[in-house]
Amino acid sequence: MTTERVARLAEFAALPLSADRAAVVAVTLGAWLHDANELSAKMSAPAHLALLPATVFTHGSCLGEETPA
Predict the structure, then answer these.
(1) CB within 8 Å of 33: residues ≥ 6 apart
(2) Residue 6 and residue 25: Cα distance in Å, rounded?
(3) Are 25 and 33 in contact (CB under 8 A)?
(4) What is the 3-state secondary structure (H, E, C) of 10-38?
(5) Structure pTM?
(6) 37-65: pLDDT as tens digits
(7) Which residues of 27-46 are buried (b: 16+ CB within 10 A; e: fewer)?
(8) Could you tell me which residues come within 8 angstroms of residue 42 by beta carbon, excluding any fewer than 6 positions away?
(9) Domain residue spans of the chain
């Protein structure tokens, strides 16, 4: 992940990002992306297709409960 790519992505998302912050974000994303892609490939394997998350988030309206306005 390059600083230039981070800056472009921030621009497309209309997020103000200084050059210093873009450099820090690029380093962080660069470290995360390799492991995230590795985990994605692992979890896409047939042996893991039936796995579900341990925590499931539901919206109160799905349970017939009132939700705050």
Answers:
(1) 1
(2) 7
(3) no
(4) HHHCCCCCCHHHHHHHHHHHHHHHHHHHH
(5) 0.57
(6) 999 999 889 988 888 777 777 776 666 66
(7) eeeeeeeeeeeeeeeeeeee
(8) 48
(9) 3-63
